[in-house]
Model the fold of this input.
Amino acid sequence: MPEQAPQTFANHTRWDPLFHFFVFPVFGITFFLTIWNLIQNLTFMSAWMVVVAMAALVAVFKIRTYALKAQDRVIRLEERLRLERLLPELSRAKIPMLREGQLIAMRFACDAEIPALVEKTLAGNLKGAEIKKAIVNWRPDYFRV
Done:
């Protein structure tokens, strides 16, 4: 794997250039062009093309969402296993109290920070972004798409 820049809260967002800057804009522009065509040329076929373009745009969103959900499931499992290993025995019973977004955000915390971060998260009912901001030693995740 090529050398990666150190990951932080400020730069951890992943952009997939082919999806974010090509596929999504092409389908978005196509949807608006079909609406423009419908306004200019009111026919059944132009109306149907709006429906088809909308279906394609929804499909693009759903395909992206399905991939992210599959990744989230794996991350949740990895983090639960990691917490089982890192938390003191008394704190392990609290693992089911963590919500999905909280577990996913904790993947960026180094092992040494996990016990205190879990307690802080549960005490303050922290959201994902708040958890990420509380992390001192960032553990990068370069594989998320």
User: Anything to note?
Assistant: Helices lie at 17-40, 44-86, 89-92, 100-105, 114-124, 128-134. The chain has a mean pLDDT of 91. The radius of gyration is 21 Å. The chain has two domains: 15-71, 87-137.
